[in-house]
Each structure stands twice: as structure tokens, then as C-alpha cells.
């Protein structure tokens, strides 16, 4: 076999191997997961959209209020009631600000009967500050961990993307010894870009203010100006005298009043 034949054979092998490896690289390098923007929102790392937890609560921001939680080996005279808000911090009870459930995301109310009267104990089961987001692309589940006073999560909420549902609701919840409280939520808002409500960003607010200011400038200026035609067309921007008159009225109004009061005081 000649040297030219060997070289040609080597090139064919290289070209047949490299394209397959190059085509498989982008799929393996595809970014997955969810990047946390704030305590209530995350954006997909692949740029497909975002998920806003604020859209999952009711009108008051709650996803569940005083829901019974079943615990193994719980006494007959004791019940546990869970209140959870995915985005809005709350205090429970409302009139007791010094309780453990002050500014929390989840609160567990342990109610038991003693001497013919009910005793309530409120336990914090996580805050919004410092929560962690994890997204499962295969199951379409966003898991958010809420922490209390230590580094271990006390509540983990699993938001499942369910476009067939019209509203968000808690499907199940589980609390076991030495494990965090797990909550499973079915929600159409857990799908990317499904619910567009939420807080406005600074950029959006700035654009709104800029647009309103520009519209007011041209509308008020056109009304205050006598349009005339010239070689440059119709002038629609206000004349300098209009703005000078407005500034003069704003700056001279208060000093004139003070001067009037001083004069009347001297005459009296």
C-alpha cells in the first residue's frame, strides 16, 4: 500500500469520527436547571422562560391556610394545621407579633387540648429569605427549599407543571420525623411563561415613566403653542417661553405669599 493511499484512508477515518463527536457535544452541553432571580422568581438557564411563584397564591398570597397535616403516632387530642404562602411573608397569629411565626413562608400550628381548653403553639417552617431553587427538566418540577434557623431545609415545596389545571392547589403534603415537610403542588403557573403576573422590574418602570413624560411634553406643548408653517415644517415642540413661564410661576408663587404675610403683619 502506497503512502498516498495510507494518507487518504487516515483522512476518511478522521472525517467520519469528528462530525459525530461535534454533533453530540451541543446536546450534552445544553444548560438545564433554573437560575434564581429573587425569592419568588427563577429563569431557565436555557433561556426558554421563567417561573413566578407570586402567581400561584390566592388574592391574599396564600396557597393553603390551616390545612390539616397527618403525622404518624400523633395523639388523638392533637392536630397540626399548616399555613403556606409561596411569596408573601405573613405572621401567625396576626395579633401576636412576637411568635415564632413572624414574617415566615410556612407556619405549623400545633393545637392540643389540656384541661378542657385548647392550647396553640406556632412553629416556623421556613422563610422566603435564602430559599433555594432546583428544577427537574424531565419531570417539569420546580423544588423550592425553605430554611428556618439552621442550614437544613424545614420545608420543600415541589411545584409541578400541569397545564390542564385552571388554578394552583396543594395535592399532598408529608411530615415525618427527622425529615423536612414536603408539599406537592399542581399548578399551571409552574410551566415556563405560563402566568405573566408579577412585580415590574426597574427597567419597565423607567420605560413607562419615560413614555408618559414624552407624551405629556408633546401634547401640552402642542396645546400651548400656536403652530406655524415654515421651511422646516410644523413646529410641535413648545417654545422656550412656555417652560420659562411655568418655572417662573412655580418659583415665584411661595415667596410672593410670604411677602404678603409680612406686609400684613407690619401693618397690624
Automatic annotation (TrEMBL):
GO cellular component terms attached to this protein's record: trans-Golgi network
Source species taxonomy: Eukaryota, Metazoa, Chordata, Craniata, Vertebrata
Organism: Scomber scombrus (Atlantic mackerel)
Protein name: Uncharacterized protein LOC121904182
Top-rank lineage group of the source organism: Eukaryota
Transmembrane segments: 200-220
Signal peptide residues on this chain, from the entry's feature table: 1-23
Keywords in alphabetical order: Membrane, Signal, Transmembrane, Transmembrane helix
Amino acid at each position: 500500500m502506497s503512502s498516498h493511499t495510507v494518507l487518504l484512508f487516515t483522512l476518511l477515518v478522521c472525517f467520519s469520527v469528528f462530525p459525530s463527536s461535534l454533533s453530540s457535544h451541543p446536546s450534552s452541553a445544553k444548560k438545564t436547571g433554573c437560575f434564581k432571580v429573587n425569592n419568588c422568581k427563577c429563569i431557565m438557564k436555557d433561556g426558554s422562560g421563567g417561573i413566578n411563584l407570586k402567581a400561584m397564591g390566592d388574592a391574599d398570597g396564600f396557597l393553603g391556610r390551616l390545612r390539616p397535616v397527618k403525622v404518624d403516632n400523633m395523639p388523638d387530642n392533637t392536630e397540626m394545621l399548616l399555613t403556606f404562602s409561596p411569596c408573601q411573608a405573613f405572621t401567625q397569629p396576626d395579633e401576636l407579633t412576637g411568635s415564632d411565626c413572624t414574617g415566615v413562608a410556612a407556619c405549623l400550628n400545633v393545637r392540643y387540648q389540656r384541661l378542657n381548653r385548647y392550647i396553640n403553639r406556632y412553629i416556623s417552617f421556613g422563610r422566603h429569605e435564602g430559599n433555594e431553587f432546583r428544577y427537574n427538566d424531565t419531570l417539569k418540577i420546580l423544588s423550592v427549599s425553605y430554611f428556618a434557623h439552621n442550614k437544613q431545609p424545614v420545608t420543600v415545596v415541589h411545584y409541578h407543571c400541569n397545564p390542564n389545571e385552571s388554578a394552583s392547589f396543594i395535592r399532598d403534603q408529608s411530615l415525618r420525623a427527622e425529615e423536612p415537610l414536603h408539599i406537592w403542588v399542581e399548578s399551571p403557573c409552574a410551566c415556563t411563561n405560563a402566568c405573566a403576573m408579577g412585580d415590574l422590574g426597574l427597567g419597565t418602570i423607567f420605560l413607562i415613566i419615560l413614555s408618559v413624560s414624552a407624551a405629556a411634553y408633546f401634547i401640552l406643548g402642542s396645546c400651548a403653542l400656536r403652530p406655524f408653517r415654515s421651511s422646516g415644517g410644523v413646529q410641535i415642540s413648545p417654545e422656550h417661553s412656555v417652560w420659562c413661564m411655568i418655572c417662573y410661576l412655580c418659583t415665584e408663587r411661595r415667596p410672593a405669599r410670604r411677602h404678603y404675610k409680612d406686609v400684613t403683619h407690619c401693618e397690624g
